Amino acid sequence: MDRPKVRAPTRAGEEEIGGASLDAAKERILACSPLAELAAPSRRALLDLGGVERLARRQRLVQQGAPPRHVVLLGAGRVKVERVTEGRVLPLGHRGPGDLVGESALAGGPNATENATVLDEGEALVVPLAGLERLLAVDAGLRAALAAAIVARKLETEARLGSLLLLTVEARLLEFLRAAARRWGQPHAAGQLVSAPFTHADIALLIGSTRETVTLLLGKLKRAGLISFDRRRVVIRDAAHLAARAASI
């Protein structure tokens, strides 16, 4: 298997976006993020510091064990975040539009504690870590907004850990599908399409199961009329019954 390209985003994408269009791209990315409500001075300082970058599939944004250089705010695309410990991979989740990547660098450690790899190409606001740290030292509003985003991520991780410990595999799959629909859902003729192309192996890693079990359970949900598939993407056909089924397990 080819290894992901280990390289930081470059400013090449900005050469294709100029003036007002570049400002609009930055604003669009910030508007769908946890930092959307920043006051004007903090907002302007952050946008001036960051640059809009194109993200290529399989690009490594963060390399575990290497010094972190930037924090990434995703505007489009999908990024897989994972940690390798003693040769074993711990999936930390998939990030999408509006999500931060590499925020653990703000804790001040010398090296990154996880890998972050682009799964679906997109774009991002990339903020140099050194400049962001200087800005945080003097901007209380930005500090508060980033702290709230990091705490929200921590609570989400704790909820996922709780489901791994307390729920059955089917219940974890149902919770994953409902969360994926909220996060990646798009209108579809048959219901709601989970636009991110999660493979059965991806889902298995994220819910602590096996690909074979996930395949069997998805087939069961399909036969029950709760989901279908469109070009290997999941379509939630009956969100209400899916929620009821999750609550009954």
From TrEMBL:
Domain HTH crp-type: 167-240
This protein's UniProt keywords: DNA-binding, Transcription, Transcription regulation
GO CC annotations, alphabetized: cytosol
Cyclic nucleotide-binding domain sequence ranges: 34-118
MF GO annotations: DNA binding; DNA-binding transcription factor activity
Origin: domain of life: Bacteria
SUPFAM superfamilies for this protein: cAMP-binding domain-like, Winged helix' DNA-binding domain
Name of the protein: Crp/Fnr family transcriptional regulator
Protein's organism: Sorangium cellulosum (Polyangium cellulosum)
